[in-house]
Design goal:
Radius of gyration: 28 Å
Distance between the termini: 78 Å
Shape: globular
Strand content: 5-15%
Number of helices: 26
Strand order of the largest sheet: 3-4-2-1-5-6-7-8
Largest sheet: 8 strands, mixed
Length: 603
Amino acid sequence: MDQIEQTLAVATEHHRAGRTAEAERLYRDVLDASPGHPDALHLLGVIALQSGRAEEAVDRIAQAVAGDDSSPLFHANLGHALHASGRQREAALSFARALSLLTNEGEGWGNVGALANLIRRYDDDIRAAAAAEVDARYTMGDVMRRQSLLFLLSGDIAYYRNLVNTALEDPLRFSVPSMHYAYWGIALRLFQGDARKGDVGAFTNGEFRRFYRLLVEETARRYDLDARLRRTSPRAAVKRVALITNQMLGEGHQPTADAFDYARRLQDDHGCEVLIINPNAMAVEGENGFVPEYSYNVTEDYDGEQTISAQGANVRMLSFPQPRFDEEKLTAIVEAVERFDPDVIVAFGGSNTVADLFAGSRPVVFLPTSSGLSPSLATILLGYAPEDDAAGWPEEARSRFRPFSFGWTLPAAGPARSRAEFGLPADGPLADGPLYVVVGNRLDQEVGPEFLETLDRLLDRVPDGQVAFAGAVSELPGRIAAARNAARMHALGNVEGIRGLYGVATAYLNPPRQGGGGSAAFALADGLPVVTYARGDVAGVVGSAMTVADETAFLERAVALGQDSAARSQAAETARTRFAETADRARSVEKLLDYAREAQGLF
């Protein structure tokens, strides 16, 4: 080790230990001995940045980059220095250069994801410029990683179009698991509302639907599943039902509870022989370079054939927890369904790839767990909410649509609880003031800065009001801490017995999102008024009487519910009436059976 390397090593030890004066002196010694030394310039810049001297940091680190343009760390720290100097566009471009270098080296999601999230803080124009910078510097041939990364940075649906059209034009370029993973990755980002530019509706109704159909067709063809599917003869009754769901996760997972409830009602109330098929057919492990990496959960105890019990009932289930989407697993699932020989298949939940494998050989009824157009290939497509219709859908889907209401079975109410039992103020002006609740399983993604600002404005106008967030979170508390009214916003975490919280709340506030239908339905049943924008599952569940057009109307309704007891009482009665008229699960199951018989006749 030469003298310069030794000096740098000692300096960095001082730096790590917080002895920045000693470190800075030694870094300068290195520059005296080797003018323009990139590492010494970079580390002097880092000390300047840590000391609040942002402009000096920019100058030092920019000199380091000029001496060594190949260091992702130099570019990233230049980005931090530029950001601290208020030069956001330049900062984003530096982060983009760091990200490009890491990606071209095959770096995994960790550091790439951290840089991507730094870029995603900025406005759309800056994000687009950063994406263009990455695109220009990208040297790998991985279409999945490139296009999905560019979408993540920019939110421009054009990049997903590029990815999907590449697969549609040359499907053999991609493996089945690769297409499967990409499909779910795109679906998740769109569900979470990450698209910021382009016609999302045209994409989902067009290329993305064709991509889903391609996935189903290529899965059947490449895995030789068509040869294992026998076309059923016409049947006059529904005696055996296979309910195929994407995943069963057990207690606490609302779609699992709903799938079980439908199955047990078909079995116990209507005499059907029911088998739940749990393929775990959502992406549960990384199968390509799609960005960002992610996976869905699997309950490993649900393995093989077993009986699951809940609500005083038992239902048979066949579960496949293997974390993959491959020929062996899908062949086993298809053979199991064929042995059961159902009269009808209920495809429970959207993008139900396994159920759609049977769409050409058996009657399939698609039972959605969310609103909107599904890519399902089923014989009949059901609506999610009472007012749903197929307006704007492709003709082939409109002809298969039937009106329906998903319906709900209420969880046990449990004993009455006080606000104090949820960790909320028990005395002082807040104890009896309005309590607004925001409920969900994805609040980290759904409660963004804009909705927090809306809540801040609400609490500005309701000085004795407070907001409680119910649902597991990790990032949200940090965002709450920066709010003006942070002291009156409470992240409760996962709440056992949500109806107990509803019993002490004033109103349910819905952030702009797609999901949340179940929690809103239970609020209606308990007479808890809902305030929501006119889109997504919650709007469908609660109906037009509880939807608003914009933030001004959102605030006016929330304030009135908090401060006008007469308005609150009337809204509570409206909520209970809506639940009684539209959300009865028993009626929904009867209607499902009617449609199953119709599907037999159409098939």
